[in-house]
């Protein structure tokens, strides 16, 4: 009887998925769940072992599923559900007009029954190894026949759970609003009425101190539409952020996350470490990695039926392997591609935790984080799946004045980064345009010579086929609005995501190359170099067959870019492929401060008192 209580609401959740799905490219949207029916088979079974995970303190673990049925098919599949109990009593309605049976959550991932058991149809049994992460709740597994297009539920497993589902998890470092502040954001299952969150930290080997953390969460009413408000909903837990202030420059610090329960017990994370930021203008080796559109990918091969983000794990792996040579990372939009399936955010923060726990991980807003009709976004599409920016703004910290206005600046040594929010209006006269001009104008180029513009959508130049088909070779109105600022304030490099490939232009202004050199730039650039670095992991975008004079290098592959500032006069730019971490394109800039001061076209007043 207990099994039936679980099964019926699962079917209603699956039924609701069809109407709630807002992005057909998401793997979970490939299931024709509106056709799901109950077909319980007493001879079918599915069993998960072990039943208790994380006993040794780990927060991700592999489990084994064993299953079978009397009449198997090669299109049988297994869905992973969390929470494991799908009874209607645990589900909240979308609104007060909804009556039972209520909508629960979608499966968090799935896999075909014959994936690791090629003889499944003949032997009538199979097994799978799946990786689970601690997501603050238990798990159950369901065996379906009928394929993705006509699913029939035949068996449900026992539940499995982590020993302590509430522990602090997945720390995410980010620069604060000043150069000597580091923020630590993490997720836990403890509300502030259960435990006090804090970070214990110290210079490596030094005296420890504790900094309190603020706590945020949200509910369905904070989101804008389906599936985020309906079957994609999953309780996000509690997101905590602590501010570590007055750090010494370039110093290694250790830290660990803590929760003090009201009975006096302490719950701790493992110990992590990071290196604090250099003083603005400090002359030291500084290394920056930038990419967009990475998303998440399951290490066990699940949830990638349409291979939407096949390069994600490779990009993550290469950055982890080179982390000792990286100081700060920028992920410029289209972060998770959750598209309203909230469980994916936990899975992403787990995937990047070896990076985010060690170096600042700065994000920008993309269409898959923000866009939703009538929500204030510049574009009226449904790319966020109803998230409308809430997940990105809550799960990660970034030093903006207003979290919904996702534009901000941050300094790292000799670099000034001005980060735009392409999902809000950037055109001349807007609040964002004024912010960007101030960001460019306020930097002291003698101390911070490397001025970098970052944005998700291509506000500059791209040979991506969909931009070329529109005849714009970039976001319509992008260059027209911003190129005056780039030129006036001598922005060195502009880097974008959105187009899932790599491309680099010459230094350019008003569609004209300002230098003929391609790899070694000396002296005044006279224009801005535009780079598309959207090959972080999501499905690749083809280039147009049209040839442009301004495009120097194109690559239809997954990769990321790395900038190394050796001093105030020398910068190395590299494009690396995610498949092997090797450099496939590069250039360097060598110049003096006087070269930045030199007048170029439209960068100085036409008349001065001296003239």
Automatic annotation (TrEMBL):
<keyword id="KW-0325">Glycoprotein</keyword>
<dbReference type="GO" id="GO:0005576">
    <property type="term" value="C:extracellular region"/>
</dbReference>
<feature type="signal peptide">
    <location>
        <begin position="1"/>
        <end position="22"/>
    </location>
</feature>
<dbReference type="InterPro" id="IPR008963">
    <property type="entry name" value="Purple_acid_Pase-like_N"/>
</dbReference>
<dbReference type="InterPro" id="IPR041792">
    <property type="entry name" value="MPP_PAP"/>
</dbReference>
<keyword id="KW-0378">Hydrolase</keyword>
<dbReference type="InterPro" id="IPR025733">
    <property type="entry name" value="PAPs_C"/>
</dbReference>
<dbReference type="InterPro" id="IPR015914">
    <property type="entry name" value="PAPs_N"/>
</dbReference>
<dbReference type="Pfam" id="PF17808">
    <property type="entry name" value="fn3_PAP"/>
</dbReference>
<keyword id="KW-0862">Zinc</keyword>
<keyword id="KW-0964">Secreted</keyword>
<feature type="domain" description="Calcineurin-like phosphoesterase">
    <location>
        <begin position="287"/>
        <end position="502"/>
    </location>
</feature>
<keyword id="KW-0732">Signal</keyword>
<dbReference type="Pfam" id="PF00149">
    <property type="entry name" value="Metallophos"/>
</dbReference>
<comment type="subunit">
    <text>Homodimer.</text>
</comment>
<feature type="domain" description="Purple acid phosphatase N-terminal">
    <location>
        <begin position="171"/>
        <end position="275"/>
    </location>
</feature>
<dbReference type="InterPro" id="IPR040974">
    <property type="entry name" value="Fn3_PAP"/>
</dbReference>
<dbReference type="Pfam" id="PF14008">
    <property type="entry name" value="Metallophos_C"/>
</dbReference>
<protein>
    <recommendedName>
        <fullName>Purple acid phosphatase</fullName>
        <ecNumber>3.1.3.2</ecNumber>
    </recommendedName>
</protein>
<dbReference type="InterPro" id="IPR029052">
    <property type="entry name" value="Metallo-depent_PP-like"/>
</dbReference>
<dbReference type="GO" id="GO:0003993">
    <property type="term" value="F:acid phosphatase activity"/>
</dbReference>
<comment type="similarity">
    <text>Belongs to the metallophosphoesterase superfamily. Purple acid phosphatase family.</text>
</comment>
<feature type="domain" description="Purple acid phosphatase C-terminal">
    <location>
        <begin position="527"/>
        <end position="586"/>
    </location>
</feature>
<feature type="domain" description="Purple acid phosphatase Fn3-like">
    <location>
        <begin position="46"/>
        <end position="164"/>
    </location>
</feature>
<dbReference type="GO" id="GO:0046872">
    <property type="term" value="F:metal ion binding"/>
</dbReference>
<dbReference type="Pfam" id="PF16656">
    <property type="entry name" value="Pur_ac_phosph_N"/>
</dbReference>
<dbReference type="InterPro" id="IPR004843">
    <property type="entry name" value="Calcineurin-like_PHP"/>
</dbReference>
